[in-house]
Design goal:
single chain; about 100 residues; mainly alpha; DNA polymerase, domain 1; 6 helices; about 0% strand; globular
Length: about 100
């Protein structure tokens, strides 16, 4: 759960870029959410879903983490099946924070 688990060798250039961006967000919590999501479903997403994913990933990480954790309501434009699927990859942030503070 702490890093990339898939190779990008079999991906087209667009999916490679998305995979890299998914694991290099700037906030570790978002790396884990988007990275795990991309590892698991990126190869199978349709072009329209890739468009939506890139739009979602263009949002500020601070906003995304609030929407994903439920701290703030998800904007109407992102109340989609794809966003719900991304949210399902949300790790237990409380455990991650405890682990980070233990170091």
């Amino acid at each position: 759960m702490t890093g990339i688990t898939r190779t990008s060798a079999d991906l087209d250039p667009r999916r490679r870029r998305i995979l890299f961006r998914a694991w290099h967000r700037g906030i570790r919590e978002m790396d884990l959410v988007f990275g795990q999501f991309a590892d698991n479903v990126l190869a199978d997403l349709a072009d329209a879903d890739l468009d939506e994913l890139e739009t979602i990933m263009s949002e500020e990480d601070n906003d995304l983490v609030k929407w994903i954790t439920g701290e703030q309501p998800v904007p109407e434009r992102y109340r989609t099946p794809l966003f719900a699927q991304i949210v399902s990859y949300r790790p237990d942030f409380d455990v991650l924070l405890v682990d980070r503070n233990a170091r």
